[in-house]
Amino acid sequence: MKDFIKIETISELHQFLGLVKPKHPLVSVFRIGDALNDLEVDNFRYSIGLYQISFKDNCAYTILNYGRNSYDYQDGTLIFTAPNQVMEFKKTEKAEISHGWTLAFHPDLIRKSELGKKIEQYSFFSYASNEALHLSDEERKTVAAIADKIEREIGINLDTHSQTLIISNITLLLNYCVRFYDRQFYTRTNLNQDIASQFEQLLKAYYYQEKQLEFGIPTVQYCGEALNMSPKYLSDLLRKETGQSTQDHIHQYIIEKAKNRLLNSIESASEIAYALGFEYPQYFSRIFKKKTAMSPNEFRQSMN
């Protein structure tokens, strides 16, 4: 059983990494080379109660186990983690000197701000690590410049403007990352099309094997895991490629199957609902009407 390390505050994180006392109780920017090169992190699982944005370049700790996946760090990647996500690190045999930086901030820093209200909209905090943001040289310079500004703001004497400026720069960094993720989606068009095709085949196989009779309608979580990616990343990828989220696709696929059964059988709407994996026929009828503007029975009658 691996030891479990839980870190709740910026001070605890600095102490664990062997860094000097933080200059701000709720936010810190530190250099990877200062923290990880001599640190033994193998055989531990970590839960850190902070938001973290980490830029890794030539990282000595190149294997990160996160959720069910392992990710081999490439140079120039940005990793996002939300509070209390569990991670593991493994040092490679041919470790080199690490470079990069980490911005860590406590939820209390942004709790009363606009960023605190919308932080969950930045879905990449819920991406698995194998969906890291891969930055171009120019993008690296952009994010590094913002991180430097935050670090300088933390380093000066705190005043009434400090927190506003720090949060504004964190927001700016996150908004640039939204743009860069969009670029990453678009530049992988062929891959995205392949994923969309694999997703369609996954739904077909699910119903061909009649898994819905045992497990119910396929969930976004199931589809993401089956395609080896986080549910939010899959939804964002499909939305960029097709304009619809994973849930939209699942419902649309089921409604098309329902239409065929309504027109080619004498089964009741409830029987069709159960056959398609719905636990409650009312839920099936509600989705059907949302997608078609008609109830199942109204659709059947309109086609007679």
Structure description:
There is one protein chain. With 304 residues, the protein is α+β, with helices and mostly antiparallel strands. The protein has 2 domains: 3-187, Regulatory protein AraC (Jelly Rolls, Sandwich), CATH 2.60.120; 190-302, Arc Repressor Mutant, subunit A (Orthogonal Bundle). It is 51% helix and 16% strand. Strand 5 and strand 6 (69-72) form a beta hairpin. This is AraC family transcriptional regulator.
Number of domains as seen in the coordinates: 2
The low-confidence runs, each spanning 5 or more residues with pLDDT under 50, are 59-74
Shape: elongated
| CATH-derived topology of the largest domain | Jelly Rolls
Beta-strand content bin: 15-25%
Please tell me the overall pLDDT. Answer: 85
State the CATH architecture of the largest domain.
Answer: Sandwich
Strand and helix order: EHEHEEEEEEEHHEHHHHHHHHHH
Radius of gyration: 24 Å
- At the fourth CATH level, what is the homologous superfamily of the largest domain? Regulatory protein AraC
The secondary structure category is alpha+beta
Strand order of the largest sheet: 1-3-8-5-6
Helix run count: 14
Largest sheet: 5 strands, mixed
First-to-last CA distance = 64 Å
Total beta-strand segments: 10
CATH class wording of the largest domain: Mainly Beta
Helical proportion?
A: 40-55%
InterPro entries: Homeodomain-like_sf (IPR009057), HTH_AraC (IPR018060), Tscrpt_reg_AraC-type_HTH (IPR020449)
Pfam families: HTH_18
GO molecular function: DNA-binding transcription factor activity; sequence-specific DNA binding
Keywords: DNA-binding, Transcription, Transcription regulation
